[in-house]
Amino acid sequence: MQIKQSIFILLAGIIGASVVHAVPLQNLDTAKRDIVRYHQSGQYEYEVSHILYSANNYLAERIEKNKLSKNPKKLAIVLDIDETSLSNYKDLKAMGFGGTTVEQSLAEGRADDAAIKPTLALYNFAKSNNVAVFFITGRKEKYREATEKNLKAVGYTSWQKLDLKPNNYSKPSAVDYKQSSRKAIESAGYDIVLNIGDQYSDLSGGYADRTYKLPNYMYFTR
Length: 222
What we know:
Structural class: alpha/beta
């Protein structure tokens, strides 16, 4: 879920607007209702589907070109987990889009997050075409068992590798960790065709042919 290091967009936007532009503060309850309305309206699902449709088309093109190549590559995709492969919306809503560290940890360990269906469809397409799937997540290593259980329960049945942050990771941003993980994938001989995540820190640092950012209307992590 990565919330412990998160700056919630609804709070950051309010504070930033009031300080920089002197815009009247928005009521926090109103901001939370806007999040729920956005989710329930279908707009979020539409945006995710639209982005991943483009990603799937690009992957299909690369697969076909690779089949015709005299020197085919080992193709791969990289997926983030929270708000990319799995949805934390149910837990976040129950915690009022906040929650204590204890509540967040309990939610992380329950292994009951729903799959984000367009991502699962992309995953299945990749697997059916012998494209390797790597998960690189901001979750810490202590959640490995719960994360693997959750992924398998909703349809992500296998993968090449699942990278989680070391429990003692102390850098303020996940960029270095995620970049080094992708670099290791390419060093192993893979061509990362797609890197997909909901945070800019998921995508920064290179080592991917194309990046696709999914919307996250609830929180921001570095």
